Amino acid sequence: MNKIFIIIFSIITIISFISCTDNSINNDENENITSIQWLSSFEEAVSLAKAENKPIMLEFYTDWCTWCKEYENVTFVDKDVIRESQNFISVKIDAENNVQSSSLIDKYNIRGYPAVLFLNASGDILQLELQEQIPLALRIDGYTGPENFIIFMEEALYLNNNSR
Q: What domain range is 96 assigned to?
């Protein structure tokens, strides 16, 4: 009788462990990502964005830029920013050492670094419309901390999902 109890208890314990493990894997799937998954090719980002129906988060940076480093050390390592970034195709463009950077800098009128733009899957800047129906590009020129950055990300997702 004691052996049967031990066997039944063991089976129940194993089944409980397996079901808890499976649920935690599914529920915490996004928690395992510890950094933003950056691409370095704009063309690849547009292609993926179209295939996955996601907006693009495009950052222009330079190696000498102090505020660009602040993004790397503060904003882009924030767990909430990392989690939200999974809803985007993220691409980083080195403004000085990238073959495609010159044409993109001209196309998006980049005048300083860092610059982060939120684009639709076609590569067009997402636009806010103010009360006067004046379009305002969804972009960040300069640095902003994680809390404000997430607001921009949420607005980009909203605009991307509601502009069809």
A: 36-162
Residue 121 lies in a domain: yes
Q: Say if 51 falls within a structural domain.
A: yes
14: in domain: no
> Residue 25 pLDDT > 60, yes or no?
no
Give the CATH number of the domain where residue 101 resides. Answer: 3.40.30.10
Q: What pLDDT is stored for residue 22 in this prediction?
A: 39
Q: Give how many domains the chain has, as a whole number.
A: 1
Facing residues of 92 across strands?
Answer: 59
State both tokens at 7. Answer: 């066997």
Task: Please report whether residue 10 resides in a domain.
Answer: no
Q: What is the 3-state secondary structure (H, E, C) of the chain?
A: CHHHHHHHHHHHHHHHHHHHHHHHHHHCHHHHCCCCCEECCHHHHHHHHHHHCCCEEEEEECCCCHHHHHHHHCHHHCHHHHHHHCCCEEEEEECCCCCCHHHHHHHCCCCCCCEEEEECCCCCECEEECCCCCEEECEEECCCCHHHHHHHHHHHHHHHHHCC
- pLDDT for 17 beyond 60: no
pTM for this model (two decimals): 0.77
Confidence tier at 82 by pLDDT (50, 70, 90): very high
For position 87, what pLDDT does the model report? 97
State the amino acid at position 111 in one-letter form.
R
